[in-house]
Amino acid sequence: xxxxxxxxxxxxxxxxxxxxxxxxxxxxxxxxxWSLVICSWLLQGKMRFGELKKSIPNITERMLTLQLRKLxxxxxxxxxxxxxxxxxxxxxxxxxxxxxxxxxxxxxDWGKRHKDLSGQL
Length: 121
Hints:
The chain contains seven helices and three strands; from the N terminus they run H-H-H-E-H-H-E-E-H-H. By secondary structure, it is mainly alpha-helical. Helix 1 (9-20) packs across helix 2 (22-30).
């Protein structure tokens, strides 16, 4: 994953566009295949790291960790640590995260239609 330096012109342009355009702001938060698929799985309820990893077999542990941290920072998910030995950590969508349900469903429906149409060309 390439991180844009916060001092770069590209970062400033991206930030300015997100400030002006709510669609870009939202896409910056949930854009990318991993964030979207993590949110899709968490729509079903709380999950532990290992459960998410099994559900998304092509993601590396490092990428999953980075994406979970980003989604937590953006207030899309919460991370709850249970005081047990060994510690149990669960991830869950926040209230605003659950608001993604109709958006994700519409994207799934659109993706199916587009894939079907593309296959006919």
